[in-house]
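Researcher: Here's the sequence for the chain we discussed earlier.
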Amino acid sequence: MIKEIVEITGSSLEVLGISVIAGGALYAIIRTLIFIVKRDTSIKITFPDFRRDLGRAILLGLEFLVAGDIIRTVVVEPSFRSVGLLAAIVVIRTFLSFSLEIEMSGKLPWKKENDGKA
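Model: Thanks. This is the structure I predict for it:
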């Protein structure tokens, strides 16, 4: 019974991750279209905002997907093969998250904001 609960929890987190990514993409598209229509401007002005909104949704969705993978793999199937596969998935998704964070902020995640000091 516990195995079934864990499997459902892991699958639910993965579905939530996919939903967050899809919902965030839809939100970013709608927000950009509304901005274009109301402000009567070109997409070039709103493109950075669109990318930021979409990037945030992808980052949050990836976190849920990783959590679902960890729960399902480690708890349900704790074999060397499944843990190795999980490690590969986590490394790939972490690299994606890291790349998106740099792309959105323009700086390395561990760098502090420039406070005006030289």
